[in-house]
């Protein structure tokens, strides 16, 4: 498959992932970290890194707004709940298993 086709497919899959995560605001970042080892903030960091490698200016807030579909502070106020003791314990166990 030509690289341009692969890039287009990967871009489409990434857009669908972002749409899915925006639709599933009930899924907390801590749960994503425990189960998958990454969260929305990780995606934003990767997006910012890719922009930097491409010579494009994108700060952390811009990257997070792209991933969340709104400013991070707004998403956090609307959707983020305080982590439960169970979530924190699962996160710590996951972190110990998989490293920093």
UniProtKB/TrEMBL annotation:
SUPFAM superfamilies, alphabetized: SMc04008-like
InterPro entries: SMc04008-like_domain, SMc04008-like_sf
Name of the protein described by the UniProt record: DUF1244 domain-containing protein
Coiled-coil regions, chain positions: none
Limits of the SMc04008-like domain: 27-92
Domain of life according to the entry: Bacteria
Species lineage: Bacteria, Pseudomonadati, Pseudomonadota, Gammaproteobacteria, Lysobacterales
């Amino acid at each position: 498959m030509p690289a341009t086709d692969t890039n287009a497919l990967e871009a489409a899959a990434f857009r669908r992932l972002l749409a899915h995560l925006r639709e599933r605001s009930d899924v907390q970042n801590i749960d994503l970290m425990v189960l998958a080892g990454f969260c929305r903030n990780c995606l934003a960091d990767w997006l910012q890194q890719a922009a930097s490698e491409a010579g494009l200016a994108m700060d952390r807030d811009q990257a997070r707004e792209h991933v969340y579909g709104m400013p991070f502070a707004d998403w956090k106020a609307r959707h983020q709940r305080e982590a439960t003791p169970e979530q924190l314990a699962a996160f710590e166990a996951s972190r110990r298993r998989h490293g920093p």
